[in-house]
Structures are given as C-alpha cells and as structure tokens.
C-alpha cells in the first residue's frame, strides 16, 4: 500500500541536507576537489563561510593572472556551460579532469541552467588547487547586469545568500579576458571590436570591474561574427550588433586582417549556441578557419542539441561532441513546491465551498423570513467570495513571476522577426503592466522597448 511518506522513486537517494564546512573541504589547507564534485553531484551545499573562502581564494589566484593568458597545448577548450553542472561532469568523465588534463573555459558559467553556483565553486576549486591545469576566462554572463535579470542571482539567494552572490561578483571581476593558445589561437568569449589592433592592447585594459557597455573589454565579451559572415564581402569591418543591442558584429575581412596583424591562425570563441556544439567559419588564406565557435551546453535550445569540447594537442584540433545528461529537477525560477501549488490548491478548495453553499441564493437572503442559519450561510458565502478574489490575485501574481522569469531569459536572445516582438508584447505586456513597481520588470520593460524600437 502506498503511503504519502514513501519515496516515489526509491532508487534515487534523498538530496544531502548537511552543509560542509571549511574543515571538510580544506584538508591541511589543501582543497579536496573530488569530495566537492561528489558532494555537489548529490545536491549538497556548503556553509556560507566555506563558499566565501573558495570564492576569495580563487580571486586571489585569478587577480594575479594577466588579462591575456598564454596557454600551452595540450588543452581542452570549452565554450558556454550556463549552469549545466551535470553536463560539465560528463565532460570531465569523457575527457578527464585536472590535473591530468588541462582546460581552458571561455566563460558563461552561470545563468539559465540551475546549477551555476555548483559550477562556479567547482571550477574555482580546481583553479585554486591546479592553477596551471585550469584556465578560466570571463564571459558576458559573469556580470551583475546579466545575473540580476537572468537567474544566477536568484539561484545564489535560494541556495546560499546575497553575501555569496556579492562575493561571486567580486571574483568574476578578477577573471582574465582572453588567452593565446599555442601561439596560434586567440580564445575569447565573444569576439573582436574596432579598437583592438594588437594582442598587447588587451593587456592595457583595466579589468577589475563590472563589464563596461562599450570599448574593447565589452567587445571581447559580447561581439559576434556578422550574421552572413561566410558570404558578405566588402562590407564595413564592424557594424553595431542589433541582436545583442551592445557591441559589434565583425566581418570576415576584419577578422582576417586582425589574425594576420597578430600572426594568429584562428579566433576561437563561444557565446553562440551552434548546432552540434561547434562551427567553423570561412577559411583564411592560410587555409585555417578564421573563426571557430565552441558551445558546451547541450540541449540548450532543443533537447536533442549536442554540445562540444575542442581538444588541441598542438598538432590537431578535434571536437568531442556530447549530449545532455539527466539532472535533478527544479521548479521554474527556484519556486518552492508549497508556494508554487498554493494558488491551485486554494482555488480548488474555494470551488468546493462554493458548491456546498450553492443552495443559498440572494433572493433567499432578501426574504425576511429567512432562517437565521441561512443568514450565517450567506455571510460565509460572501467571505468565500472575497477569499476567491484574493486567491485569483495570488494565482495571477505567480503567473506574473513566471512570465518575468521567461522574459528575463529572452532578454538577450536574437529577435530576428517582427512577429517575435508582437508575440512578446502579447504574451508579456500584461505581466509588465501588472508589475510596474517591480524594479526587475522595469528593467525588462526597458529591454522590451529597445527591442521594439529596432523593429517598429
Ligand atoms: Mn555569452
């Protein structure tokens, strides 16, 4: 017989509920990465002091690295992982992990996926313990502006605290901006911009801050190859990036000139979800792809999407593809099950009350000979009606908060057709006007309007 206290899928263990302390993770002052991985895999969390210790120790390693790293092969290069911890684990299972294998990550560790904090703490633990086997660059999502409107800030607040979030941001400010691999590849998260001429220009940037809205720092994080990169020739070198509403598109010719000027083969970047996890663009005169996009978050757009890791052994560059792994389920926007289902439950209960009290009509109430019990019933009914109204308001608020989250995740995707914008307005217009006081929705409204300005 089934009891409500039984676990429905008994083969899956309960998530760990105890939090690890500094002493559990740091044995004799040395961080235990494998313990951390296994613990996070079972959904364990650290106490605040321990999380902050890892973040600060990582910042103290990262801040002494130059803006432009020099990384020797063999090395595995990964693109966006976006909070998909269980997929990152499958990369380590398939390709090995530090210190046996060296990694260069091109940023966008957090947002969208629900395990960003686990990724950040694990990668930083590797950075602390094996600083020359784990190289981490900054992506456009390693910023306050993005994590506030997408999901990482909320994730930190749910699993840890605002302090841990703030500390993450300070550590993100220390991440280097680019890497030259084997003297032939320039690796960045986004791309190149009009003010970047030589590699040494990158080292002149002051990086210990929130990502700025323009300039080379911004372009390294945000730029994209032009939409018709492989076909359009004799176009401007750089054009304003209307898909991102920030930074530039760079053309094939601009990229080739940059590579030649700096004696490089290929620009390797992440930042765009591409089919199969990697995409090679039009080749240079030397016969190498001018740009290579690498994306390491599988099932990002649709469930069947593969992702990839680039393996470079100094002679050969190969792409290892992989597909999505199962992961624990979270309700949208980290909502808890009680507040998520409450509006529904309350609605159903008030419907039951309605049905019970249906026999009392208003004409009966007006009847002077009405029994005293019926008058009480009428009073009760009007109370339930009030209750019902409050309930539907609660349900609407929940729907609004879901919509805000959806809109947040749309705020930086490509709006390529005017119908997309019309749909957005139809779907979210009411939500935004309902939440006019919410700072987050004000910001999203601004984004939506900017999108509108472009197309209307
Ligand atoms: Mn990105």
UniProtKB/TrEMBL annotation:
One of the protein's GO biological processes: calcineurin-mediated signaling
EC number of this enzyme: 3.1.3.16
GO molecular function: calmodulin-dependent protein phosphatase activity
Domain Serine/threonine specific protein phosphatases: 137-142
Catalyzed reaction equations: O-phospho-L-threonyl-[protein] + H2O = L-threonyl-[protein] + phosphate
Keyword Transport: no
Keywords: Hydrolase
Superkingdom as given in the UniProt entry: Eukaryota
Family that this chain belongs to: Belongs to the PPP phosphatase family.
PANTHER family: SERINE/THREONINE-PROTEIN PHOSPHATASE 2B CATALYTIC SUBUNIT 1-RELATED (PTHR45673)
Name of protein: Serine/threonine-protein phosphatase
């Amino acid at each position: 017989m089934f009891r409500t206290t039984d676990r429905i899928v008994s083969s899956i263990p309960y998530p760990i509920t105890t939090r690890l302390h500094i002493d559990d993770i740091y044995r004799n002052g040395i961080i235990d990465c494998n313990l951390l991985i296994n613990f996070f895999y079972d959904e364990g969390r650290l106490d605040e002091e321990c999380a902050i210790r890892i973040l600060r120790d990582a910042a103290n390693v990262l801040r002494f690295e130059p803006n432009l790293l020099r990384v020797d092969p063999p090395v595995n290069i990964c693109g966006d992982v976006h909070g998909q911890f269980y997929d990152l684990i499958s990369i380590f299972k398939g390709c090995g992990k530090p210190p046996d294998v060296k990694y260069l990550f091109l940023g966008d560790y957090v947002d969208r996926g629900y395990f960003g904090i686990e990724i950040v703490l694990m990668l930083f633990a590797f950075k602390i313990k094996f600083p020359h086997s784990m190289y981490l660059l900054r992506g456009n999502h390693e910023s306050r502006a993005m994590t506030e409107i997408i999901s990482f800030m909320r994730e930190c607040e749910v699993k840890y605290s605002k302090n841990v979030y703030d500390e993450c941001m300070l550590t993100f400010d220390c991440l280097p901006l680019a890497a030259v691999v084997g003297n032939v590849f320039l690796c960045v998260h986004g791309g190149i911009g009009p003010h970047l001429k030589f590699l040494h220009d990158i080292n002149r940037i002051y990086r210990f801050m929130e990502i700025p809205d323009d300039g080379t720092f911004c372009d390294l994080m945000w730029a994209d190859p032009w939409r018709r990169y492989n076909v359009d020739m004799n176009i401007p070198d750089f054009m304003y990036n209307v898909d991102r509403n920030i930074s530039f598109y760079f053309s094939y010719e601009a990229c080739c000139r940059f590579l030649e000027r700096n004696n490089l083969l290929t620009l390797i970047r992440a930042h765009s979800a591409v089919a199969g996890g990697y995409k090679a663009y039009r080749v240079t005169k030397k016969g190498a792809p001018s740009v290579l996009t690498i994306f390491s978050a599988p099932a990002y757009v649709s469930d069947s999407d593969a992702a990839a890791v680039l393996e470079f052994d100094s002679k050969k560059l190969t792409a290892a593809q992989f597909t999505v792994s199962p992961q624990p389920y979270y309700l949208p926007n980290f909502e808890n099950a009680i507040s998520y289902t409450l509006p529904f439950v309350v609605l159903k209960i008030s419907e039951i009350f309605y049905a019970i009290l249906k026999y009392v009509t208003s004409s009966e109430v007006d009847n002077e000979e009405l029994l005293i019990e019926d008058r009480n019933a009428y009073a009760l009914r009007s109370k339930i009606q009030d209750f019902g109204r409050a309930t539907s308001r609660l349900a609407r608020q929940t729907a609004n908060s879901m919509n805000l989250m959806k809109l947040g995740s749309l705020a930086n995707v490509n709006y390529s057709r005017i119908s997309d914008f019309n749909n957005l307005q139809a779907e979210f217009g009411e939500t935004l006007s309902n939440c006019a006081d919410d700072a987050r929705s004000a910001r999203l409204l601004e984004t939506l309007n900017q999108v509108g300005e472009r197309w209307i």
